[in-house]
Amino acid sequence: MYFEISRAGLNCGHDKEECSEYPNHCNKCIKNQLLELGFELHTNIRITEMDSEEKRLEMYRDAIWQKFWDVLNIKHIILTSTKSGLAIIDYPITGAGLDVSLLTGFIQANITFSESGTNSNSIGSEYQTPRRQFFEFDYKDFIILLKEGSLISVSLVLENTASDSLKSTVNEFIREFETIYYDKIERYENSGSLNFNNAIEYIIESFNVKLVFPMVLSHTVPPSITEKLNQNYVQRAILKLAKELLINKPFFFINNILNNVQDIVEINAKTVLYEVYQLLQMDVIIPTPLDVAESKFKIFKENRAMNLAKNTSLSSILTNDNDFEELKEQFEGMDSATAENLMEKYIGKGKTAEEALIYQAALKEYEKALYLASGFNFEEKIGKISFMILEVEKKINDMELEYAKEAAEKAEKRRDYITSIGNYRKAIEILEKRLTEVQVNPEETESKIRKIKKKISKLEAKI
User: Fold this and answer.
1) Each residue's pLDDT tens digit, 107-147
2) Neighbour count for residue 194 (Cβ, 10 Å)
3) What is the pTM of this model?
4) Which of 55, 119, 284, 361 fits a 20 to 30 Å CA distance from 140?
5) End-of-domain residue from the set 185, 211, 237
């Protein structure tokens, strides 16, 4: 058996401050050490010095980031027999809506036309040795990347031009796939028997397709992993955001996490993706196949509908938006006396809700009362109800502000800095909204905003 090892590291055993050969003979020294260990070296071997652990980490983040963008670029993966040109595996990643039989016929026609030498530009001038070169060509709104191996050809339907790393992945994939599935490919060529079901998992793994799968959180996390999570504020923030996303849907996507974290704090997206990748490696975040996610989503919606149906009348105080529409419909045929009685009823319900600290429900009742008062021109009531609405809105505003500040302070104490910054930013939004309204003391509000911004700056420095 022969193997190639990518991204392997070697500690040469010498301190550069004490090594007389550093840096001029490092490559030669490392090559000699590798040869002594039994490695076979290619002429194009690349040796890179790692200045620090941070530099190594940076390169690893870049590699994961490129993997993510490569798989986002792939819309469809098609494996065909080099001998017959027929598709043996057709794996759609996103709904590109392609007719695979037409596409494979188109690809085969271009290969045949190019190999005939009739027109060297039909596919690309670089396509001189079919089994060694890649070529790309346009097909509808997509780009097709094609590479032929000895037994199979790989066609990737892409949104954009392929990166060098994606081409490298295709090279490795063809070499390994032909070795692992040699017998099945031969059987297909001889008998037409298609038996490549388990190969889909291999494709998913090779092209990192799991990075674009819907994600869920593991129900059980070992204590050793929990301890690691508690020491990593970025991972803790990712898990908190993931749990919030899972309230409204039974799954989330990595893109959701990247966008939400960056909305809260200015942090490099590569750093966030790296931490997400670590959580995937630890099985804290779990990719879910699309068909499974679709089934879960259907069950999720059905359960939510049942729960809503059971709780539509939790309280006579808690009204919904349909009440307002019904009131507008009743308004046209309503007389003054009926309107006044109904208005007083809404005011009474509003006061009851306000005393119970259910401010949103109180606000809805007061707004309905104001609608009637304005419609029938009850001048005395209009001013009174308007003032009641302003008071309730202020209470809601104050409550949201206190909650945001308290949540920020608690997160800061447990060193969950990203969550803390997110809540401080919510507090600033509430305060800035106050500045657009009539304020008794806008200077005080501006002072509070400045203080919170200073806290955010300190937290960002810690990150």
Assistant:
1) 777 666 665 554 444 444 343 444 457 888 888 888 889 99
2) 13
3) 0.57
4) 119
5) 211
